[in-house]
């Protein structure tokens, strides 16, 4: 288990937020059968599991070949959810994106098992399109506060790419070194979780009701 108390606290907060929002999103999907809620629920629940695994197994768990394919589900789910809700009359766009991403994720997993190491190019092939979708789609949605999705998407993509670049051991740039990445990752995950939570609470088009938080934020907006 991790011995960095601050990192554990940050990851615990992230985990609680991600679990609560993930369950609410899953309930929304079961009630309304809306694919965007299912996609986002998967992202939040994977974020929760990721935080728990890091707490229990320390950052060494990030070296496991199963982690990059699973972690890719966070930005992929968020991007797919946005595509489903913004192009609800053209679901083939979202399904096409999902098929592409699942092919990359499966290929990433197979290559990891065969080569016994993570392929950085495959990680970026998954994270870059998802990150671009999360960043740009909210701006063209016309929804108030949707830009919070963009900030969260940019940050999660940066984190994913840093983890990918960490594998390229011939680079000496400090941002790509594991010690630096592991030091900033807990805070980064918390910030990402907060922005994504706000992004599914504020915009009217895809708003969910998070007990206490929704009332506080929406009341503040009306005032």
How are the secondary structure elements laid out?
Blueprint: H1 5-32, H2 35-57, H3 67-71, H4 73-86, H5 91-115, H6 120-141, H7 147-166, H8 178-201, H9 213-222
Helix pairs in contact: 1-2, 1-8, 2-4, 4-5, 4-6, 5-6, 6-7, 7-8
Description of the molecule:
This protein is mainly α and 223 residues long. The protein has one domain. It has 9 helices and no strands. Helix 2 (35-57) packs antiparallel against helix 4 and helix 4 (73-86) runs parallel beside helix 6.
User: Low-confidence runs (pLDDT<50, min 5 residues)?
Assistant: none
Calculate the terminal CA-CA distance, rounded to whole Å.
Answer: 45 Å
- Let me know the number of strands: 0
| Largest pleated sheet | none
Rg value: 17 Å
How helical, in percent, are the residues? over 70%
How many domains would you count in the coordinates? 1
Principal-axes shape call: globular
The number of helical runs is: 9
Task: Summarize the model shown.
The chain is mainly alpha-helical. Helix content is 77%, strand content 0%.
